[in-house]
Amino acid sequence: DTSYQFRATKDIWFKCCFCAYVTTDQHEIISHLASHGIEQFKCQHCSVLFDSMSELQCHSQRHRSDMSSKCPSSPKLSPRKQVCLTHTNTYKCQRCHLAFKEHGGLTKHYQTHLAEKPFKCKLCPKAFAHRGSLTNHSRIHTGEKAYKCEQCPKAFIRNSDLTAHNRMHTGEKPYKCELCSRAFTRQSTLAGHIRTHTGNKPYKCKQCPKAFAQHYNLTVHSRIHTREKPYECKLCPRAFAQNIALTLHNRTHTSERPSYKCKLCPKAFTWLSTLTSHIRSHTGNKPYKC
């Protein structure tokens, strides 16, 4: 919505909610946000849509809570204790099976069914159903990272991001694909991976015929057209379209040794693709035919 009124001052930088893009121009950020499209997260139990994975996870806890509890007024299993209260006295949602002891709980839940999002960001067009979601979103603009990792210097805007990051230290990958042996630290990553099995590619490039199974891949691909390189090296003028490329480049400035070592000779390489090509010099494999 280009008519959205921003609180524009010289001190405000408008930061994209989906990638590292920043600008001082309010019209540029609107155009950039539109390039991402609308990515919503759908509840598998009641089909309600959410703007972020953290909102979906919070909502999903209501479905997972006490899945095996028996209703005292009915012999059937109830998916949640609150549902049993519909046989006594409670506030029942007219859109789904959930019910609540207090009217305030019903009011907060009902907003997930409506387009109403009363908590609006003052720095960009986004709006949210809950105040807590707006608070988390606002940190994108302020740069505040309240959730700090206890095992490394990294910090995060959302607690859910910290939780996912901690799995890198523990090695935990709780989201397993039922179609292959792969597992992931995030549910959203698993959802994108499953599309590689189904062939579904909902994220289409507006500049060329390409389409992608995951929104992130479309974002990276779009930079081919825009020539945007948001990841800048702090030690030299180089910039990159992907964060992983910057990470690998930074090794050229430090004493950090290359990560990918050949098992057949003492050589080591910064890039996995370079190691793969090098190994062919040992095996004699020539996969690329004229």
TrEMBL record:
Residues 41-68, 91-118, 119-146, 147-174, 175-202, 203-230, 231-258, 260-287 form the C2H2-type domain. GO terms for biological process: regulation of DNA-templated transcription. Its main location: nucleus. It is found in: Nucleus. One of its GO terms (molecular function) is DNA binding. SMART domains: ZnF_C2H2. SUPFAM superfamilies: beta-beta-alpha zinc fingers. This is Putative zinc finger protein 85. Pfam families: zf-C2H2 (PF00096). One of its GO terms (cellular component) is nucleus. Coiled coil: none annotated. Belongs to the krueppel C2H2-type zinc-finger protein family. Signal peptide: none annotated. InterPro entries: Znf_C2H2-type, Znf_C2H2_sf, Znf_C2H2_type. Gene3D superfamilies: Classic Zinc Finger. Keywords: DNA-binding, Metal-binding, Nucleus, Repeat, Transcription, Transcription regulation, Zinc, Zinc-finger. It comes from Ixodes ricinus (Common tick).
